[in-house]
Every structure is written in C-alpha cells, then in structure tokens.
Structure to design on (494 residues):
C-alpha cells in the first residue's frame, strides 16, 4: 500500500510506537507499526489469550449531521440505517452503480441528527469526496488525519475497560457510548477487527498517547502491530478492503449479504441495487469462501485456485499462516459451482498444485459479547 | 572451518567436502516468526544465486538462494518439522541444506564474517 516516498502522515502514537521498539512501515500513507519486539506470532496469540492494543488512528473518522443523516446515507450504502437505534453500530459498504464496493465502513447512530462513520485509511480522500458530492444538506465533519482511534481486543479487553470505565461492562456488541477514561473524553464502541470481544476508542489526537499509556499499563495489555492485525482478521474471516473486496466485487459475491436487511433488499435505493437484487434472485457466478490448505505451506494473495482437474476456478485474495489455527488459512473467490464447504480444490504455489478444501468461515470462532 | 556470507543474508560453512547453508541472524530477525520452510532434496543441482529453498513467516514468503554452484546432499528435515529453529538457532540447528561445492573460488569470493558484519551495519 505505498512506498516509503509517500509516507507523509503520522498517527498521534508515532513517538510511543518508536519508544516501544516497533518496526515501522509505510501503510496507506501513514508510518505504522507492523510489529513490536514481541513479534507477529506472539502478538497474535496474546490478543486471542488476553488483550491487545492496536493503533488504528490511520482510519478516517467522520461525523455526519443533518435533519436525518441516516436516511441520506442510505442512498450510498445497502445497510439498514433507519433501523439503527441511537448508540448502535452497523457494518456496511459504499457501493457503485455496478454494485461494486468502493469501501467498507462502520456507521454509528449517535442521535437522530448525527452519525459517526469510520472509513479505511487508503479510501479516505475518495470517500470524503463521494460524501460531499452525494449528500447535499448533510454537514460532513472529517475529524482529521491526526485524530486518535485505538482498538483494545481480546478476551480480557472487557475486564480492562471495566476497570477504567465501569459503564462499558454491560455494553452489547456493536454499541457505542461516550465516557471518560482517566479524565480523557472518549467515545467507546464495542466492536473490532479480530473476531474477539473488544472495543474501539475514539479520542482527540492530543490525548491519544495518554490514553494508550493508560491502557498499556494494565497487566493484560500488549501493543500489537499491523502484522498480527492482519492474521487475526483473516482467521476471523473478515474482509480487508483492496484485497478481499473492491470495486469488482459486489456484497453478494463477497458473502456480505447478511449486512443487508430484508427491507433494503426489497426496496433497493442504493447504488448498484439492481445488480445486487438480480444476484439475490438469480445467484452469483463466484463467491468469497474460506480456503484451508491441507499441508503446511501458506497460499498467499493472488495464488491461483483450480479444481482437481486443473481448471482455473478462482484466486486467493488473503492468505497466510493462522497462529491460532496453527495452520495456513486463506480466503478467495471461487466459481459458485465450487463454493460449498468441503469442496476439494488445488492451489498453485510456486508452480506446484497443493491440495486444499473450501472451508467454513471464520477459521477462529467469533467471541463477541452478546450481553 | 570457513564461513562465508551472501548479500542476501545466507551463510555457508565448509567442513571438509560438504558445506552447510542457512540464513543469518539478521535475516531471521527481518523475517520474523518462521512458520514454513521448504528445503531441497538430496541430488538436486543448485546454481549460484538461484532459488534453493523457501522460508515463510506469518507476514511473507521469501526465497533462499544457493550461495554457490553445487549439489544438495541433504535437506534439514528437522527444520521442516520445526520451522521455528530458523529463528531460535539460525546458525546451528536451523540450517537449511548441505551441499557439495563445484568451484571453491565462488566460496572465496563471498564475504567473510568481518565483511558481512560491516555490510549489515551499512544497511
């Protein structure tokens, strides 16, 4: 996602990452920690075992205000925002006229006149232009390239957060509340990108390091880099924009139909709705699935997927080693005829066919807090 | 015993007629946790600078290149079974393969320990 020459932005935690001994890499225009001295494998396992703190300040945070911003934003996304209660969060995506995905995003209904939206770092400029062009009458406040966003993820995240902000203990998954942690004003969401219970905390850039230090001071918490963030989300079967989903994939092909309510499927009213509705009715020609290699060799992004006879049926879009599964794991698109769980396929790795099977997602079970 | 190093961070150690090849501490540290390796079978002919083995970390796959021309005499099965040896003991138990050397002059042309140390410091 970019070369060192276009690294211009720093998150508010940049100095903290360096003081913790992080290995920094350019990512989506930011100088980001890919790992700390603990290393990707142990960072991954620590997050599944206790709690990991991630700097996700590179992501874009936007507030939309108006008479009914939920109704307005529904014109750009297939998610059901009208049904979203205040303080609740929904995962959805910006679609284009062909039903392709421009970006995926989290939408929180703060109140009937305000939404809080989190978008991908690499898509920020395009998404903001898209919002400005298509939401006349809605006030669009981008919180800035240096706003803070921290994620605390893992089975101990709830206990850690409850120690610092007791009212978070009863928060259901995909809900938000505003509170204070150590006197710092924060907006806490019970959500994440690891498959674990956890929180994402929005904080002013100037107070992000103080908040991160408070969280890191808790005994269960280790700093976790982008490397483990990627292996955690892959095991959890969660899509990475620009890899598993992009403008060439529709929400239905991407197996994200669950994010579209019955009403929105019936009414449409978002870009590419006709394409999505036709795919719901007639089926899709290809589908995103989990792929489990049978050996130990990981199959990386762009690995060709073949049927057992050697015919090309698709491509890996994310692949690597899953430390929790303790085996290689992958996701990719295959012809709909080969998308059933258990279907044998082969992966062409370094010119050799390796046996694999279509697998159920997620590879590591989700452990979200249901209250 | 002669040990030499390549710019791609392989080491090669000659003991009698047979040389052992692995990756350096710098290499294992850059790669991170090694989770998979593929080593060549005995009898495979290797050409200097061409792919000889594969090493994969959680993050990425990398090739190990043959430091010199020669023929593989043994791949390290223990490393295949326990790829983490490449991290914990890169210059010892974590070796990748053993080979014969076709042209001793190729070995002499590689960096010695002092030259490799200053090479790494320059990176």
């Amino acid at each position: 996602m970019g070369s060192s020459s276009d690294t211009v932005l720093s998150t508010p935690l940049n100095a903290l990452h360096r003081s913790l001994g992080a290995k920094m890499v350019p990512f989506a225009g930011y100088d980001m920690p890919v790992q700390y001295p603990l290393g990707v494998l142990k960072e991954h396992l620590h997050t599944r075992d206790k709690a990991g703190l991630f700097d996700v300040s590179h992501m874009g945070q936007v507030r939309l205000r108006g008479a009914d911003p939920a109704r307005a934003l529904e014109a750009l996304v297939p998610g059901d925002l009208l049904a979203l209660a205040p303080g609740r969060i929904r995962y959805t995506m910006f679609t284009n006229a062909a039903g392709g995905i421009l970006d995926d995003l989290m939408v929180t209904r703060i109140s009937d006149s305000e939404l809080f939206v989190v978008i991908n770092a690499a898509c920020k400029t395009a998404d903001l232009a898209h919002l400005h062009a298509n939401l006349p009458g809605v006030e669009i406040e981008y919180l800035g390239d240096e706003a803070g966003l921290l994620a605390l993820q893992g089975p101990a995240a709830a206990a850690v957060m409850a120690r610092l902000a007791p009212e978070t203990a009863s928060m259901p998954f995909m809900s938000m509340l505003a509170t204070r942690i150590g006197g710092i004003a924060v907006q806490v969401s019970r959500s994440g990108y690891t498959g674990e219970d956890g929180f994402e905390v929005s904080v002013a850039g100037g107070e992000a390091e103080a908040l991160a230090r408070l969280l890191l001071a808790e005994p269960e918490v280790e700093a976790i880099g982008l490397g483990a963030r990627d292996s955690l989300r892959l095991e959890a079967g969660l899509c990475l924009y620009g890899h598993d989903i992009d403008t060439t994939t529709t929400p239905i092909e991407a197996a994200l139909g669950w994010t579209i309510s019955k009403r929105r499927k019936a009414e449409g009213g978002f870009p590419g709705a006709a394409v999505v509705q036709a795919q719901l009715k007639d089926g899709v020609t290809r589908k995103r699935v989990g792929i489990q290699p049978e050996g130990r060799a990981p199959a990386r992004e762009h690995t060709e997927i073949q049927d057992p006879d050697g015919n090309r049926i698709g491509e890996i879009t994310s692949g690597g080693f899953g430390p929790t599964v303790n085996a290689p794991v992958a996701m990719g698109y295959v012809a709909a005829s080969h998308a059933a769980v258990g279907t044998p396929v082969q992966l062409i790795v370094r010119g050799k066919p390796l046996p694999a099977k279509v697998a159920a997602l997620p590879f590591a079970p989700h452990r979200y807090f249901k209250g | 015993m002669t040990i030499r190093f390549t710019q791609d961070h392989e080491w090669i150690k000659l003991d009698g007629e047979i040389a052992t090849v692995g990756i350096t501490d710098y290499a294992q540290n850059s790669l991170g946790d090694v989770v998979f390796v593929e080593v060549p079978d005995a009898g495979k002919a290797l050409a200097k600078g061409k792919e000889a083995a594969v090493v994969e970390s959680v993050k990425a796959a990398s090739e190990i290149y043959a430091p010199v021309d020669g023929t593989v005499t043994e791949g390290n099965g223990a490393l295949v079974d326990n790829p983490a040896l490449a991290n914990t003991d890169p210059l010892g138990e974590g070796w990748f393969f053993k080979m014969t050397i076709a042209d001793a002059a190729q070995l002499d042309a590689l960096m010695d320990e002092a030259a490799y140390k200053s090479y790494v410091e320059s990176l």
